[in-house]
Amino acid sequence: MLDLHGLTKTYKTGDRAVNDVSLSVPKGQIVGLIGPSGAGKSSLIRCINRLVEPTAGRITLAGTELTGLGPRALRRQRRRIGMIFQEYALVERLTVMENVLSGRLGYVSFWQSFTRRFPPADIARAYALLDRVGLLDHADKRADALSGGQRQRVGIARALAQDPELLLVDEPTASLDPKTSRQIMRLLTEICAERDLPAIVNIHDVALARQFLPRIVGLRAGQVVFDGTPADLTDTALTRIYGDEDWDAMRRAEAEDEAETREALAARDAMVLA
Ligand SMILES: Nc1ncnc2c1ncn2[C@@H]1O[C@H](COP(=O)(O)OP(=O)(O)OP(=O)(O)O)[C@@H](O)[C@H]1O
Question: Which residues form the ABC transporter domain (predicted)?
Answer without folding.
Answer: 2-246
